Amino acid sequence: MVTAAPGEDRSPALALVNTRRLTPAGETDDLAAPAGAAAWLREHGLAVADVDLRRLTDLRAAVRELLATLTQGGHPAATAVETVNAAAQADAAAPRLTWEDGPSREWHSTRPGSFDAALAALARDAIEVVTGELGSLVRPCEAHGCVRYYFREHARRRWCSTTCGDRVRAARHQRLVVEQRDGTR
Ligand SMILES: [Zn+2]
After folding, report:
1. Which domain holds residue 125?
2. Span 33-65, pLDDT tens digits
3. 20 CA → ligand 1 middle, Å
């Protein structure tokens, strides 16, 4: 079981990007098969009957490119922007105001439960992230070999998880031990 990176609870698009991970055991992909992808969508409140794996992983690659561009500067490939826009338009949805603890906005799909609606919800979230306040918080995990992104809500955070932080500290300690042994310090 993998712990979600900070921000995944606020952004399904961020969670989508992080479905592809590198672990010491190799690459892990939650969306490698239709059943896994359907389970992932269900966990994120986007249950669908049929999954078009290709469109979902194409959207993931496009969103990853947008997040990478946010953190590195420059412009994303035009195809990444087109892919996100096409996905966002796959299903018409209108904002709906709810007022419980305070005002909040939901997107009301015209075809709830369809794959197009799920894809569009992820793409809309991606657009909201990169154009909104959360965009400035997007960071790549700094641990070597980790490819996840997270929202840096605390200024000192540099890793997507305590696992990555521990790994970096262990590697640093190991390096120190070797340097002391070899007399390079
Ligand atoms: Zn990490």
Report:
1. 12-182
2. 999 999 999 999 999 999 999 999 999 999 999
3. 12
